[in-house]
Amino acid sequence: MIKEKKRVTLDLLIIFILTAAALALCLGFQDSVYCYIRNASKPILLRTLLAAVCQFGIAGLGITVVALLKKESFRSHGLQIKGLLPSVALCALCFVPYTVFALVTKQASDYLPFGSVWVMKDALSSGFPVNVLSVLLIAVAWGFFEGFNYVFISDKINKRFPSKNRWLNWGAIVGAVTCLLIHGMVGVSLTGMIEMLTIAFIIYGMLIVRDYTGNAWGCVLIFIFLWNAF
Questions:
Q1: How large is the greatest C-alpha to C-alpha distance in the chain, in angstroms?
Q2: pLDDT of 60-116, one tens digit each?
């Protein structure tokens, strides 16, 4: 048990170091990267690829390296058929409070998966097959890896700090807090506080669902179809 906890601690440390390094690089070259990605005269596929690499570095590189080093399949973290429908349905329900909030506050004017990703609209307006390849890159980086990143890290945290109480899920709690900090969702006004709570509920709720159903596809699919869609 002690050896297993040490191995999991090392896994989390590797993920943290790689994520921090990727974030530091992105911040260090932020102006150049931003200018290139937003430059409509540059090829959209290259712009999307650069943005996707940055996104993957922050939410994907660490867990991929650990999975390869430890020879862990992503399937072992819930990417399976069993429990798929309950996982998707319950994770979608976790998004209801935020959807209601966005509609009431008129923050949701339209719906487009990955619509808030900078390059999405340019990718859609480009010709075939560039548009398909660009959208696939966006779906993999901002959909699959961002959603699954929470699952993988939550699983590791729960192995390191197991809890007998289903609701005292340390992986889900850390995931929710981390999401709020990364996205700057710490509200000070009443509206900001409500939005913060709805965002935290999405992450906490979907990770609870992942543990309850044993399936992680719900977490991934809400990031593909809902997270950046409003």
A1: 56
A2: 999 999 999 999 999 999 999 999 999 999 999 999 999 999 999 888 778 999 999
The pTM for the full model equals 0.93
C-alpha–C-alpha distance, residues 93 and 90, integer Å: 5
d(CA 212, CA 41): 48
Give the whole-angstrom CA distance, residue 81 versus residue 194.
35
Burial 11-33, CB ≥16 within 10 A → b, else e: bbebbeebbeebeeebeeeeeeb
Residue pair 172/155 in contact by the 8 Å Cβ criterion: no
Is the bond preceding residue 162 a cis peptide, omega within 30 degrees? no
Asked whether 26 and 57 are in contact (CB, 8 A), the reply is yes
Q: Residue 217 and residue 201: Cα distance in Å, rounded?
A: 18
Cα within 13 Å of Cα(31), Cβ side: 0
Evaluate if residue 1 carries a pLDDT over 80. no
Closest CA to 142 of 103, 183, 87, 96: 183
Instruction: Indicate if the pLDDT at residue 2 is higher than 80.
Output: no
pLDDT, mean of residues 30-59:
95
Name which residue leads in pLDDT, 71 or 182: 71
